[in-house]
Structure formats: C-alpha cells, structure tokens
C-alpha cells in the first residue's frame, strides 16, 4: 500500500511545475484566470470589485502554497507549538499586508498597471474583518503577524462570527448600529475545511458509574453542535513561514434526531437543527462588561472545545503518552474569555483519557499561561453557577473540585484566614453565586501576564494581591507591542521608504531595534524636509477623506490632533471635548491680533460606543453638537475645526494615524492597562499628549518625557484624590465649559444634563475636573512646540526612532522565552 501511495505522490509531483511564479506576466495570467474561473466574469468585462476578488484569489494561492509548506515542515520537525486562544481577532484588511509580507507587492502593482488597474484602488474594495472590539483584539492580530514573521510554530484559534463588530452610522449626531454583513460577498482569505469538524456538546446530566472497578463520571450531553474549521493563512514577513488562524463556525450536527423524524415532525426538526448556527452568529459588542449570558458562555466553550479536540488530535498523530503533552503544547489564554479550557482539559484527561486527577492537574498547570487585559476587578468575568451548571454540568463539578483542592492548599499557607480564602476562592458566594474565571486561570496557569509595567504592578498590588503573595513567580510583565509591518510598511509607505533610505537597509522591518539609528539624523535638515513632505502628503489624504465623509474642509497648515479609540468614560473623550470648548471660548473672546497667534487645529475624534452604553453615546452626540457650532462659526474659520470620523475601524486607523500631528491618550491614570494605539502613533512620528498611564510611562522612558506632552494625576495619586471627593474643586475654566454645555450653548440641554452630572458635584470619578488645568497646560505646550516646526519635526523623528520597544516582535520574543518555552521552526526556502 505504501508503494502505491509513493508512486501516486511522485506522479502528482511530476504534474506540478514547481512553485507558483511571481513575474508580472504570470501574475497577470493568474488574475485573469481567476476573473474567468473563480469570479466567473468575462476577462474582457469586469469591474474594480471583481478585479479585487480575482487579485485576492491569486494572492491566496500564494499564501496557501507557503502555508502548506510550513505545516508540512512543522509536522516533520514536530516542535513544541504555541496555541493562542482568543475570542476576538481584529484582522482588518488582508490584501496589502499579504503581498508585502510575501514580498511580491511591486510585481503585483506592475501586473495590475499593465492590466489597466491600480493596486491601491483595488485594495480599497476590501472590507475589514472586524471579529473583535478594540485593543485586545487588534493586539491578537499584531501578535499573529509577529509569530509568523519570527518563525514560531504557532496556531491561532477563535470564532468565525457571521457578523463582526457593528457598523456605526451617525444620524443627526447620534450613533446607530448596523449589522456588519462582512461575509455577504465571500471572503477570499479563508479556506473552508468541511472535513475538519468536531462535535461540541452542551447541557445534559452527569452520571456516576463504575468501570473496571473504578468510579467514574460520565457526562451525558443533551445537545451536540458541529464546529467546522475555516483556516486563515497568516504570512510572515521575509520568511517562507505562513501560520494558521483557525476560526470555528457552528453548523448543525450530522447526527439526525431520529426521534423527531419518527414522530413526523420533520420541519421542526430541521428548524431546530438550524438554530445551532446561532452560536457563532454574532460578536458581543460590549468590551469588558459581562452579563452572564448563556450564548456568550456557549461561544466560549464552543471554540475552546473544538480547538482542544483539534490540538489533541494533532498531538495523538505522533504521540501516545500524555506525559509528553507539555513538551509539545503551550496554550495561551487571551484574557479570561477562553479560561473554561482549563476545566475542559481536565475533563478530557480525567474522563476520556483516564488519567488520575493529580497527573492531569500537573499537565494542565504546565501548559497554560494567561494574559489579563483588565484593570478593575469589576472587569473580570464571572459566570453564574446556575448557568454554568446547566450548560456544562460536568465542567462545574470539575471547577468545584479544583476549588476544593485550591482551598486545601491555601489553608496550608494561610491557616484559617477565611477572608483571604473567600477572596481567592474560584466560587464567589453572594446574591448570585458565580465562578470567577480569573481565579480559575490564576489557580492553574504557570504564568500570569500583565500588559505594561504599570498594569502588572496594579495586578500585583491590588487586583490579584492575594495570589501574588502566594505565587510571586507566576507574575510577569509583557508590555504590549504592535507590528511595524502593518503600522508602518502597509499604512505609511512614504515613511517606510524614508526609514530604509536613512538607515541604508530594510532590515528594521524584521529587526525593529535598528530604527533607533534614526536618532543620529534627528537634526539633519535634509531628513527634516523629507519628513515634513511625508507628513503633508499623509495629511492631504486624510483631509480628502474627512471632506468626503463629513463635508468639512480642513487646512493642511493646521495641527491635526487625533483621538481614536473605543468611547469609554475612563478614556475621557469628554475631557478632549471640554478642552475643545475651552479653545473655542478663548477664540471667541480674542481680538484680531490675538487670533493671529492661535495655532490652527483640526480636532479629530473617532470611535464606537457599545450599543447599551448611554454615557458613551452622549459623548458622541456632544462631539457632533460642538462640531456643528464651531465649524459654522465665521469668527473661528480655520483656527478650529472639529471632526467626528464615523465607523472607526482598522483600515480607518491606517489612514488616520499617518496623517496625524498629535494624538491624545487621556485615560485617568491607573485605568488603561496598556494602550496600543499610542504605539502606532509613536511609530508614525505623531507626538503624544498623554497621562502617565499604561504603556505611556514606558514610552516616556524610551523617547524622553521632553518629547511628549504628559499631564494629569499620577497612578498613585488617584486613590487619594478620589477619597477627597466633593472637596476637590475643578478650575474655574472647567466649571465654565461644563456650564456652557449645561446651559444649552450647543443645544440638547436636557439630553446632556446627565453627562454633565458625571463630572460635577463630587461625582467626578474619572477626575476630569482635577486634571483639566494640567490638560490645558499640556495643550498649550503642544501649541508652542508646533510653532517651532524645526523642534516639532525633531521630536517627531525621535518618536519614531524611540518606538522600537513597542514592536509586537519584542513582546512575542518575551512570551516565547519566558512563558511558552518554544523555539522558532523556520521553513526552508
Ligand atoms: N482591553 O480591548 C480591551 N478589552 C477588554 O475587555 C479589556 C482590555 C484593552 O486591551 C489592550 C491590549 O492589552 C490594552 O492595550 C488596553 O489598555 C485594554 O483596555
């Protein structure tokens, strides 16, 4: 039989003539073939979208080629693999990133020109893959890029939502949500694997039985749903490696419900089967508020169970002894969302593989590590016991057993300190008895990562203080990073050329440390000229975009001042708007000679509010109300424009960031775990106006505090300031701008009342009043710096030059070495 297979393989190989060719003629032929055979249009008549589809399929062929080679190589070498479990991945667009990482961008651009198309125009046809909410999800995407580029044997696992994050549309200044039908026109970047599917079970009961003289628990599930794999190749840059992001979609189970059939209820049986698909239907749009929803729990278990079946199957292909599991498998839990995987691994090892509890627990403890992204204990997920017991009855029992053993261990260390035991317990007693998913992760994972130094400190001293005292060695700092491939090479090609030219190499694209070499030229007038031209061209693109979307014309000489991120009270977009109102008020009270000294500004805000988040929605409306007034005031003209960019997403960020002069990161100190947007701005030479929070503290260390505009209360001052509560008085300026909103200066007086209440009368939890004066000073410092364009450009160059630490390549190297214990596995060329 083996001889047969070998002969077949040789024949097959003989029929292929080597690798796909990447010269311009071959690419043209390929694109046209896809127009005709994949898109099924005539090669003499197709539009831009069809051209994009054909182009994407031709790129996909090349991705698949490398992806096959990579997986064959991984299989041959059988290294320890890292499995990255995340409920969210915010991939954005794939076309430009793919051709750049594959190293065939110029060839494609040429091929398309010869066919009469423009690569950039076609790239605009692609929609975003928005399978995530914000920072956490985009971080996962950046880390996948780094894992591929650094040749790590990695797999991403997640959910293939039918509807990604909602589209934001603005009607009369109010946010409305529309579904994101991202799969309606097909998705060329995924490969459906109908044969890679696993049953995932829910509900039912647990029975105790005696098998071979041993008592065991048997879970008799009540529902089975099929998880079907959709594979998304992720190409590395400057390597042949392309890794896999495997996303699961729910499909009705193949096992037909015979009972319904025999009772003749054929139609209902089919309708009920179809309901299974709802599990992967829609992404939850509230980041960090968990409402104990059954569907959410089912989503978590669904993707975890399918992923673990896949991982164990792959392990069993080559190994039969689970003692070897930790040598081959590292599991990374992205926030607590996938932490039910701990109970699932225990269930599989104990109930299905018949390992004893201690052995199984030993294995679980050596394979899992977790990254926490939350800051407040309230942001940590809890699942009501009743819900968990109904959806996953056996898992609840397992969690109780884990907790029982944890409590026994804690008693040995802490004796009868029951307060401490109850804080550390996985089970929270109270009105709604719940499972604390973070405590489950902490009990098991060998590493607990924070996402910046400040954040790790918060975890150690506040959120998980008790656990830190018990297991200090588990706690590690893995300051976040972003990929320079997406955030410079793809989104700012002019900057990319400048950096490569001045460094005399493109090697920084894989080795970001080299970017520090720019420091040497920070004062070079020739570099200044190129740098300013680059910025102007990017601003021009952004200005055109703004005009198309909002009809507001903006001056390129103005400072483009940007705050783009999810709208949250703690991120303090409201502080920004109140600052804008102050600026407006000042301009209104100036005479003409004073006005000539004003630095013109375009204030750009963008971001989505969770659909049920009233305060965030009011902030969006206030932004529009202020924009309406300011932009139409002839006294102001080009001195101040206010723009809200609707439907902020990854591809909008790619356009906005390179065109910004200044970016704002205003979280109340101690509330932003890290922040990654600031890193993208930094790489693009945009100056940062920020509180000393999250990663901004480390950015200041890298570029020097003098090269950014820091303001506001420090992390360790915030608790005491809050204590003072009502006795804290904001400045008169603050009272005045809030009064303007309250008095209806911008209309909608009643609507904005509750928003104003959040920052006044002692209720100012996020300390806007306290920080306002210092915020205005930082803004004034930014104005002064902008007037001196030589100084500004120098600060801008030093920002880019100091951004090396904030590459996700550095973060991933730290994870690989300190948490996962994995080595690169490079596919030979
Ligand atoms: N984060 O995006 C989210 N969603 C959450 O539910 C909790 C945290 C963010 O994660 C980013 C990546 O670690 C951080 O940079 C950011 O500070 C944090 O808010």
From TrEMBL:
Enzyme Commission number, as recorded: 2.4.1.1
GO cellular component, as recorded: cytoplasm
Keyword Nucleotide-binding assigned: no
Alphabetically ordered keywords of this record: Allosteric enzyme, Carbohydrate metabolism, Glycosyltransferase, Pyridoxal phosphate, Transferase
GO biological process, any: glycogen catabolic process
Substrates-to-products reaction catalysed: [(1->4)-alpha-D-glucosyl](n) + phosphate = [(1->4)-alpha-D-glucosyl](n-1) + alpha-D-glucose 1-phosphate
Cofactor (UniProt): pyridoxal 5'-phosphate
Class of enzymatic activity (EC top level): transferase
UniProt function note: Allosteric enzyme that catalyzes the rate-limiting step in glycogen catabolism, the phosphorolytic cleavage of glycogen to produce glucose-1-phosphate, and plays a central role in maintaining cellular and organismal glucose homeostasis.
UniProt record similarity statement: Belongs to the glycogen phosphorylase family.
Name of the protein in question: Alpha-1,4 glucan phosphorylase
Source species: Capsicum baccatum (Peruvian pepper)
Lineage summary: Eukaryota, Viridiplantae, Streptophyta, Embryophyta, Tracheophyta
């Amino acid at each position: 039989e083996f001889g047969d297979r070998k002969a077949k393989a040789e024949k097959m190989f003989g029929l292929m003539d080597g690798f796909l060719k990447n010269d311009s003629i071959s690419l043209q032929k390929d694109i046209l073939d896809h127009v005709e055979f994949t898109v099924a249009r005539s090669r003499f008549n197709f539009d831009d979208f069809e051209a994009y589809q054909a182009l994407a399929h031709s790129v996909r062929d090349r991705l698949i080629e490398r992806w096959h080679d990579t997986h064959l190589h991984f299989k041959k070498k059988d290294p320890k693999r890292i499995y990255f479990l995340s409920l969210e991945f915010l991939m954005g667009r794939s076309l430009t990133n793919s051709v750049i990482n594959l190293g065939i961008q110029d060839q494609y651009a040429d091929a398309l020109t010869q066919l009469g198309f423009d690569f950039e125009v076609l790239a605009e046809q692609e929609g975003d893959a928005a399978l995530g909410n914000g920072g956490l999800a985009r971080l996962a995407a950046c880390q996948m890029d780094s894992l591929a580029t650094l040749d790590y044997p990695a797999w991403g696992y997640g959910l293939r939502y039918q509807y990604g994050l909602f589209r934001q549309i603005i009607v009369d200044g109010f946010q409305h949500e529309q579904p994101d039908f991202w799969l309606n026109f097909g998705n060329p970047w995924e490969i459906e694997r109908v044969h890679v599917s696993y049953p995932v079970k829910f509900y039912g009961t647990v029975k105790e039985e005696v098998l071979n003289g041993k008592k065991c628990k048997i879970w008799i599930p009540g529902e089975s749903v099929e998880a079907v794999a959709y594979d998304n190749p992720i190409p590395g840059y400057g390597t042949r490696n392309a890794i896999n992001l495997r996303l699961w979609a729910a499909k009705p189970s193949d096992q037909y419900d015979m009972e319904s059939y025999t009772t003749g209820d054929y139609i209902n049986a089919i309708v009920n089967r179809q309901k299974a698909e709802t599990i992967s239907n829609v992404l939850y749009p509230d980041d960090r508020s968990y409402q104990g929803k059954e569907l959410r729990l089912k989503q978590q278990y669904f993707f975890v169970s399918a992923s673990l079946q896949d991982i164990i199957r792959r392990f069993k292909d080559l190994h039969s002894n689970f003692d070897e599991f930790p040598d081959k498998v590292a599991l990374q839990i992205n926030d607590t969302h996938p932490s039910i995987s701990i109970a699932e691994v225990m269930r599989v090892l104990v109930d299905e593989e018949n390992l004893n509890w201690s052995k199984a627990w030993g294995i679980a403890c050596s394979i899992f590590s977790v990254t926490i992204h939350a800051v407040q204990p309230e942001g940590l997920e809890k699942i009501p016991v009743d819900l968990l017991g109904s959806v996953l009855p056996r898992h609840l029992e397992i969690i109780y057993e884990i907790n029982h053993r944890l409590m026994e261990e804690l008693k040995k260390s802490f004796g009868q300190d029951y307060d401490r035991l109850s804080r550390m317990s996985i089970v929270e007693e109270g009105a709604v008895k719940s499972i604390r998913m973070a405590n489950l992760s902490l009990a098991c994972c060998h590493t607990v990562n924070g996402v910046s130094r400040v954040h790790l400190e918060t975890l150690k001293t506040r959120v998980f203080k008790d656990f830190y005292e018990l297991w200090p060695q588990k706690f590690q700092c893995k300051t976040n990073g972003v990929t320079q491939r997406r955030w410079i090479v793809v989104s700012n090609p002019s900057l990319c050329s400048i950096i490569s030219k001045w460094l005399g190499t493109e090697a920084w694209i894989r080795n970001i440390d080299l970017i520090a070499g720019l420091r040497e030229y920070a004062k070079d007038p020739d570099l200044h000229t190129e740098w300013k031209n680059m910025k102007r061209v990017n601003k021009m693109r952004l200005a055109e975009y703004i005009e198309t979307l909002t009809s507001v014309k903006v001056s390129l000489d103005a400072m483009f001042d940007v705050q783009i991120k999810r709208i949250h009270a703690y991120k303090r977009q409201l502080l920004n708007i109140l600052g804008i109102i102050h600026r407006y008020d000042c301009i209104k009270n100036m005479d003409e000679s004073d006005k000539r000294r004003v630095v013109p500004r375009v204030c750009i805000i963008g971001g989505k509010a969770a659909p049920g988040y009233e305060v965030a929605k009011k902030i969006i409306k206030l932004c529009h109300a202020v924009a309406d007034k300011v932009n139409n005031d002839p006294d102001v003209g080009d001195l101040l424009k206010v723009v809200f960019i609707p439907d902020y997403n990854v591809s909008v960020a790619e356009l906005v960031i390179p065109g910004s002069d200044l970016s704002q990161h205003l979280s109340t100190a101690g509330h932003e775990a890290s922040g990654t947007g600031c890193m993208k701005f930094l790489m693009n030479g945009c100056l940062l106006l920020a509180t000393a929070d999250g990663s901004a503290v480390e950015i200041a260390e890298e570029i020097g505090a003098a090269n950014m505009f820091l303001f506001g209360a420090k992390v360790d001052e915030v608790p005491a300031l809050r204590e003072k509560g009502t006795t804290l008085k904001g400045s008169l300026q603050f009272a005045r701008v809030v009064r303007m909103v309250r008095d209806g200066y911008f209309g909608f007086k009643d609507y904005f009342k509750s928003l104003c209440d959040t920052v006044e009368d002692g209720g100012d939890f996020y300390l806007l009043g306290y920080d306002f004066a210092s915020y205005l000073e930082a803004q004034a410092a930014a104005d002064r710096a902008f007037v001196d364009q030589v100084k500004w450009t120098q600060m801008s160059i030093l920002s880019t030059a100091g951004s090396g630490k904030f590459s996700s390549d550095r973060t991933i190297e730290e994870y690989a070495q300190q948490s996962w214990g994995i080595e690169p596995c490079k596919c030979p060329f």
